[in-house]
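User: Can you predict the 3D structure for this chain?
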Amino acid sequence: MSKPSPEVYEQGKGMDAHNQAMREIRSRKDETYDPREPTRVWIDEDNTPDGVYQSLTIILNTGGCRWARAGGCTMCGYVAESVEGGSVAHEDLMAQVEQCLDHEEENADDECGLIKIYTSGSFLDEREVPAETRRAIAETFADRDRIVVESLPDFVEREKIEDFTEQGLETDIAVGLETATDRVRRDCVNKYFEFAEFERACADARDCGAGVKAYLLMKPPFLSESEAVDDMKSSVRRCAAVDGCHTVSMNPVNVQRHTMVEDLFHDGGYRPPWLWSVAEVLESTADADAIVISDPVGHGSDRGAHNCGECDDTVQNAIKDFDLRQDPSVFEQVSCECERTWEVVLERETGYNQPLAR
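Assistant: Here is the predicted structure, written as structure tokens:
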């Protein structure tokens, strides 16, 4: 990865020693990417406050999250897929959007009512996505019903959000909070802001007619399985209690390349969460005053949330069903002998670096 310029290093935020180690890990990347090609695009269905929508999800390829370029989060490897040099021109970003529209035309029966735009960083950070591009994207999708854009809370500002709300779009800001527990966010994720900053972002979004979708992280490194489950249960409820936060999306850790989690994983010091743990959190927080969802990336693989291998797809299907219907009874319909192993893990696993079961 190209060496970030000095102003990108966020000195004094997070753990400087950790950031130095993470920069070394990330420097192992040797791939290059075309600035006119989006990282990913796909069609899906999503639950929103206005019902279930067909969605077009776009991951723009930018110069990368500024925090990741400084070292960044223990589990996030998305910056390794970013364009070299730290920035992408407006014309190239709009070419990526055009490719995504072509994908929609070829793969969706109708135009998607919901557009979700991510950058693997912060869409509202103008070092990643210039103001000119943000406004052009708002105009491009002005005829849709709803849009979601992702950002760290630092960059959530009224005038940026109004680029979308003034187009008549129902607008949601997706914030990578990871956990409502400041100690876990700081020491396990290496993210520098506190829960109070998330609350501030929710207030600012609410003041200009937008909503917030909180992204949580299940089982960052240095937590046992039971600690991770307890942290997610309390975090879901704390987020749901914040005025303006209408959706909580819980993402189980998947082992990504060029991360500290990958180094721990290869050394036998990390196991992604059990799918039973995901189901347990969703079932127990179904009464929270928010839409609570999860989309386990890489489910069933060693690097993603998994159970024994026999029941992974069945539990994943129950999770997807819950996401759309918010009915916790779906989990009563799935069972497997490995559930007992998971229960023993919850009872007896105390050290993060010695998983009791793979």
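Residues 286 and 328 are 6 Å apart (CA to CA). The chain is about 35% helix and 15% strand.
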